Amino acid sequence: MSEVTIAFLGATDTVTGSRFLISSGQSKILVDCGLFQGVKSVQKRNWDPFPVNAKEIDAVVLSHAHLDHSGYLPLLVKEGFHKEIYGTRYTNDITKIILRDSARLQMDDAKFAAKRGYSEHKNPQPLYNQDDAEKAIDHLRERAFRTRHQIAPDAFVTFYPSGHILGSSFVAVEVAGKSFLFTSDLGRNNHPLLSNPDLPPAQDFDVVITESTYGDRIHDTTPDAFAQEINDGIARGGAILIPAFAVDRTEVILMALKDLIEKKLIPEIPVYVDSPMALSALNLYREAITARSEEIRAGISDKYANQDPFDAGQLHQMQTTEESKSINDIDSAAIIISASGMATGGRVVHHLANMLPNPKNTVILVGYQAVGSRGRTLEDGAKTIKIHGQELYVNAHIAKVESFSVHADSDELITWLGNARKPKKAYVVHGEPEGQLTMKNRMEAELGWDVVIPKSNQVFEV
Ligand SMILES: [Zn+2]
What we know:
This protein is α/β, with parallel strands linked by helices.
């Protein structure tokens, strides 16, 4: 008899730290291996020992490259994982960029904390270093979309395009005859570059695991709001800072700006992309467009055959720290796009420290801001904010534009799930409590499914 279980090792009561372990008598398959991000108490969980022996895991399946799905890989390898990590072509390419950047950021943060002496620790250490990231990268193996691949004696995986970021997939996993469908982060049908998410495969699943990031929200799509905020920002006479996730959001924002400038809804002003990671990702997107990747929306490769989809005329790509610092001196209208998207780290934090005290400046939040992040603090209207151990006044204008989300909202998730056959059991993860509960209620009422919200480290027999 082979008993199959699923353990929820992360992303249970939070949107971060996605890690799900499927075990049979014969093998252990880990689906995603993400970092916890956000409030300190959540981040601290990254330092907890991994709940299962990493040496015993037979394969990792990577749904997409985002840090909250891939960022724990260097630690898993450090703890003895020695097998293969499976992802699609661009998931692997972007994961390399993200893990290298993550290692560098953590080493920088540890150094900075030591210098300023504001850490609780005498000698702050990074979670992992460049070496650990490179070792994890060595384990990445590329697998094609829409093909069933064997990953262990009794385990198979199929990746399907999910339209969330380049390379992203929702994933069907079979272990010892039991079948699982992970939505991971599901995209929408309006991405300017990526094809729509595939429909769920027409087959029976024992278990469906769905995200619920926007489980209790409906996106209102008002592209005008973005143009309005930019024009207001220009009128205020200062600079406009857009914290944006380096991968995908930066691309979507740049295309929206190009579109608004071409339609003369905003004036042509300089646009600075200030994130080395975002610049590397931009090149991968350009490559995918030129290569006519199956992930790119029909017509896009032709449309941008002879022009850069991301340059509206005055695009500045800031690679070096010196270039980044030169932005501090800009005193005319300009847009600065910098990472990280929730202002938890990266160059954007320095720009916030520089810009927030001046009421002429504008900060436009364009993505999901997790509880406890600096982005969320700003979104919630804080009058002061702590950056690098210093309390700063928030005098700049703070705006929120939601139409750029690359996550399906509540209605979109229900519609997508409604195209799948009814599973024996469904689990709602990757959301905050209200989002999870709304999704559970809707799935029960509208789809007639049997739905559970798992708790951290809970294990279920399948
Ligand atoms: Zn994601």
